[in-house]
Amino acid sequence: MTVSRNNSKIVYQGIKDAGIRSISALPETWLVYLLQLASSDPEMTLIEVAKEEEAIGIAAGAYFAGEKHILLMQNHGFLAAINGIVSLAQLYKIPLCMLIALRGHWGEPYPWHTRGGIVTEEVLRALQIPFEYARDPAKVGKQIREAYTFAQSSLWPVALLLTRDLMED
Amino acid sequence: MLRSKCIEAIYPELHDKLVVTNMGACAQELYDLGHRDNFFYLQHAMGLASSIGLGLAQSLPHAKVVVLDGDGSVLMNLGALATLARYRPANLVHIIFDNGSLLSTGGFPSHTADGATDLATIARGAGVPHVESVSNAYDFMEAAADAFERHALSVIVAKVEAVGPDHYGMHFQLPENAFLFKRWIAEHFGAA
Question: Which residues from chain A sit within 8 angstroms of residue B44, using beta carbons?
Answer without folding.
Answer: 87-88, 91
